[in-house]
């Protein structure tokens, strides 16, 4: 696992101009491998290769493009064990998570976009009366999805398989070519994805991967004149900087940014279901997920019981080596991020929150671990209740009635996914429709993988997943003719 990785540019494996940097296992703190540090010129070369490949690939019949994606899905699924072990080592995810929710979801996403969907649809004819533009007539029209062009895909560290697959697969299905810039913490898995696509028959230049620990790599991949669109998953702060560059070049954008999901738990909720759902923040990627229900808004009638049950739930979770089958909570991605999460817990104490679970660093010999932490007696104006912590930390805020709960939920810069727990289905749907969030889970943290995904407010721009991703990676052209 300690080989020196090459870049993938224009169908060739290329030695990086900037040498290599170390990829660290967040659990054992040992070297997983050596990632390539691309130079600015190499990034621009990757963008140029994608531009050259775009014309032929965009004219390739959709069924042939789909066949490449289908073969890639089979290759990834066939190497599940090998790829999952690498993902576990790079990210610190538990082995079960790496298999099912990282590599397994990636294979499923390639398989999903190996299904050809219609790229055009008719528009009802329009009757035009005679006028300065000509005689009376009936005008027919078609709306046609066309590929955008070259897409830079900048991916997140929390899932180096599912996140890039969710960008690359629909982009390629639509006839775009891609330059993938993986997160610097865990880029090696993305190179395995590129290998699978190369083996599946993706022509040279259709897929390119360039990595680096320096910001200039991502900056070059965004600013290149050969790039038509940027698809980014990451922090809102970085998303703003990317959007500024895209705005100057009128590049298309798809942004999936931060979140501070509210979980409204009403007095009539099934507390067992609510606790299990909210508890995923403690365990799922160790809270390093933008969709996590990190702000619990508890109606006063169940507030104390909910806090008690969440604290007990957090205390039962095994924190430790993600290779062990009974481990539920692995490490966060790095020592620096552990320090950041711990600083927020300390900030919560200073702001007046009460730590009712966790709050101390686990006593483990190696690894960047944070104990599942529950902060109670919080208010909506506390920084721990307003800023994305991106770790296994949940804050609880009480509310009295439905109106106050909705107001608290929407009192945030973010709007990715919120949650409602209530035994009154009519109320749950009524509340969901009023929440300013791109998605709302009712009595569940589960997802429908055909439903549109994206955020309101500072949580992003655009929608993807399912057929919505095909729209996201396309321009819509109208073709009009006289009937």
TrEMBL record:
<protein>
    <submittedName>
        <fullName>Aldehyde dehydrogenase family protein</fullName>
    </submittedName>
</protein>
<dbReference type="InterPro" id="IPR016162">
    <property type="entry name" value="Ald_DH_N"/>
</dbReference>
<keyword id="KW-0560">Oxidoreductase</keyword>
<dbReference type="InterPro" id="IPR016163">
    <property type="entry name" value="Ald_DH_C"/>
</dbReference>
<dbReference type="Pfam" id="PF00171">
    <property type="entry name" value="Aldedh"/>
</dbReference>
<feature type="domain" description="Aldehyde dehydrogenase">
    <location>
        <begin position="13"/>
        <end position="479"/>
    </location>
</feature>
<dbReference type="InterPro" id="IPR015590">
    <property type="entry name" value="Aldehyde_DH_dom"/>
</dbReference>
<dbReference type="InterPro" id="IPR016161">
    <property type="entry name" value="Ald_DH/histidinol_DH"/>
</dbReference>
């Amino acid at each position: 696992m300690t080989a020196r990785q090459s870049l993938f540019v224009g169908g060739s494996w290329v030695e990086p101009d900037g040498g290599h940097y170390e990829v660290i296992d967040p659990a054992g703190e040992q070297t997983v491998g050596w990632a390539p540090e691309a130079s600015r010129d190499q990034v621009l070369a990757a963008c140029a290769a994608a531009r050259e490949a775009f014309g032929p690939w965009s004219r390739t019949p959709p069924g042939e493009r789909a066949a490449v994606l289908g073969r890639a899905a089979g290759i990834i699924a066939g190497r599940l064990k090998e790829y999952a072990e690498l993902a576990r080592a790079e990210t610190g995810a538990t082995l079960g998570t790496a298999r099912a929710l990282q590599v397994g979801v990636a294979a499923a996403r390639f398989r999903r976009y190996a299904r050809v969907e219609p790229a055009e649809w008719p528009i009802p004819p329009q009757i035009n009366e005679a006028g300065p533009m000509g005689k009376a007539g009936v005008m027919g029209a078609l709306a046609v999805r066309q590929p955008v062009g070259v897409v830079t895909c900048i991916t997140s560290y929390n899932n180096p398989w599912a996140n890039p697959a969710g960008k690359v697969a629909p982009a390629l299905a639509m006839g775009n070519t891609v330059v993938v810039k993986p997160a610097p913490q865990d880029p090696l898995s993305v190179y395995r994805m590129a290998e699978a696509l190369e083996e599946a028959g993706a022509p040279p230049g259709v897929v390119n991967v360039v990595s680096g620990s320096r910001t200039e790599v991502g900056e070059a991949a965004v600013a290149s004149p050969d790039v038509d669109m940027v698809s980014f998953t990451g922090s809102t702060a970085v998303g703003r900087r990317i959007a500024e560059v895209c705005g100057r070049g009128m590049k298309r954008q798809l942004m999936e940014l931060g979140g501070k999901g509210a979980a409204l738990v009403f007095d009539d909720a099934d507390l067992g279901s609510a606790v299990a759902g909210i508890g995923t923040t403690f365990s799922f990627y160790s809270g390093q997920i933008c969709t996590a229900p990190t702000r619990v808004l508890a109606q006063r009638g169940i507030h104390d019981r909910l806090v008690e049950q969440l604290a007990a739930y957090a205390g039962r979770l095994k924190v430790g080596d993600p290779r062990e089958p009974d481990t539920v909570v692995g490490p966060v991605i790095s020592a620096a991020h552990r320090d950041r999460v711990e600083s927020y817990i300390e900030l919560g104490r200073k702001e007046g929150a009460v730590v009712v679970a966790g709050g101390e660093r686990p006593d483990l010999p190696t690894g960047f671990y944070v104990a599942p932490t529950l902060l109670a007696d919080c208010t909506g104006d506390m920084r721990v209740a307003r800023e994305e912590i991106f770790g296994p930390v949940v804050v609880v805020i009480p509310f009295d009635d439905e109106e106050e709960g909705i107001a608290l939920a929407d009192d945030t810069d973010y709007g990715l996914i919120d949650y409602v727990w209530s035994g009154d289905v009519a109320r749950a749907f009524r509340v969901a429709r009023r929440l300013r969030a791109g998605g709302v889970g009712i009595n569940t943290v589960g997802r429908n993988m055909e439903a549109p995904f994206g955020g309101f407010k500072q949580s992003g721009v655009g929608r993807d997943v399912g057929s919505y991703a095909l729209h996201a990676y396309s321009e819509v052209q109208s073709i009009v003719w006289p009937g």
